[in-house]
Design goal:
Layout: E1 3-9, E2 16-21, E3 24-30, H1 34-43, E4 53-55, H2 61-64, H3 67-74, E5 78-81, H4 82-86, E6 96-99, E7 105-107, E8 110-117, E9 125-132, E10 135-140, H5 148-154, E11 159-163, H6 168-173, H7 178-185, H8 193-203, E12 210-214, H9 223-236, E13 243-246, E14 256-258, H10 266-282
Parallel strand pairs: 3-4, 4-5, 5-6, 10-11, 11-12, 12-13
Antiparallel strand pairs: 1-2, 1-14, 2-3, 7-8, 8-9, 9-10
Helix pairs in contact: 1-3, 8-9
The structure holds zinc ion (ZN) (2 copies).
Length: 283
Amino acid sequence: MPVLLTVLGSGSAGNATLLQHGESRLLVDVGLSCRETARRLGTIGVAPESVTAAVITHAHGDHTRGAALFSRRYEVPVHATEATRAVWPGPDVRSWGGLECDVPADIGAFRITPFEVSHDADAETVAFHVETAAGGIGLATDVGVTTAALRSRFRRCRLLVMESNHAEDLLRVGPYSASTKARIAGERGHLSNEALARFVREDLGSSVECLVLAHLSRVNNLPELAEMTCREALEASGRSDVRVVVTRQDRVTETVRLDARPARPDALAGRQIALPLQVSATS
Ligand SMILES: [Zn+2]
Ligand SMILES: [Zn+2]
């Protein structure tokens, strides 16, 4: 049974991602409106009331906007850290579930470990390392810099959803005020295409098969530019086998499917037995 990841929408106007494994359905952030989240779930054949739970990265509106209403209307518990619950904006959710940094939590078929990242929300911001039957998935949007914790947690994942927020040149010449530019480019702001490329060249684990680029700015980036910068970094490090998927704000991105790796098939055992014979034949 595959694990499926679908980014329902991503960017400064709202973020929501669905993870599925069998009957377990987990929303990571509900930053689109409740109605829009339900509508986009419908386009991939998922009933909103079938969602098991939602987990929240931080209390910025583009990650929380639809959470309370979605939670109450479809009876979906919302998991967030104590710090995020303390600064929760607006109406309350139907029920809270806990999350604690660096402590794994089992939610449905997923084992989720939140860990703190560098971002400027009022309370802590977390990224997620998710262990599934088909391997590890890392999700990190809204990170000013890639920390040592992020690099080590993401090293052995098969699938990464990571921020590729802005092109540094476009941000520099763009229309934002000097203070907003400094905030975005700062250590507690957002990850640029170039910073993600650096991560790809220096820290991408050999097990990573797919990179999903998220939280693209519509003002200071272009999907084609984010993709090209990432692909160039992959090619420069001999990793052009890694699939790149670019998310959008206004539509659902193609679903990424992770099939469970088969436990050592018989054919592999047979090859292992043949190996010494091949070696002796050529020596
Ligand atoms: Zn944020
Ligand atoms: Zn955000």
